[in-house]
Amino acid sequence: xxxxxxxxxxxxxxxxxxxxxxxxxxxxxxxxxxxxxxxxxxxxxxxxxxxxxxxxxxxxxxxxxxxxxxxxxxxxxxxxxxxxxxxxxxxxxxxxxxxxxxxxxxxxxxxxxxxxxxxxxxxxxxxxxxxxxxxxxxxxxxxxxxxxxxxxxxxxxxxxxxxxxxxxxxxxxxxxxxxxxxxxxxxxxxxxxxxxxxxxxxxxxxxxxxxxxxxx
Length: 216
Fold this sequence. Notes:
Arc Repressor Mutant, subunit A
């Protein structure tokens, strides 16, 4: 089975190199070349390639082009082939639904693997860089979860007393509850915030906007 591919890059020498290398691949068929974001959309509309490979730095709004292609042309998968190694940028385009993120400087085999993976409904990222991106996405998801797990009034009070360095017994005395109840709330806080100890409870609570004012 032959995979139809379109390449979009504003550097003629890069396009020539891509054509030179991938026109020799028996499982690929290059159907079109483009140099900017507008070209990318027009080529996909006209040729409906299985995979479009594009650089993020092409003239025009490459992110908007990717979004349009993914939302309106389900048949075509998008593989980003770029020198941009910024993790936030990679996360942003992955969230748009691209099927591959390959850094320029990768081998021809890696880009070929990305194209085949995209065609097969899989996602490919440059090894090494992928680990950094995944860790960043996990951190983002964890922070989002923290923001969604707002603390109740009693938990807020306990966190504020923790900020003062008070022990469970001292917190119990201040709030006029049993030490056992404080321990119960501490356990609930650690589970809710996905942390392991008192210090991490305070740090996590601060990230989700726990009021900084201490209880008198």
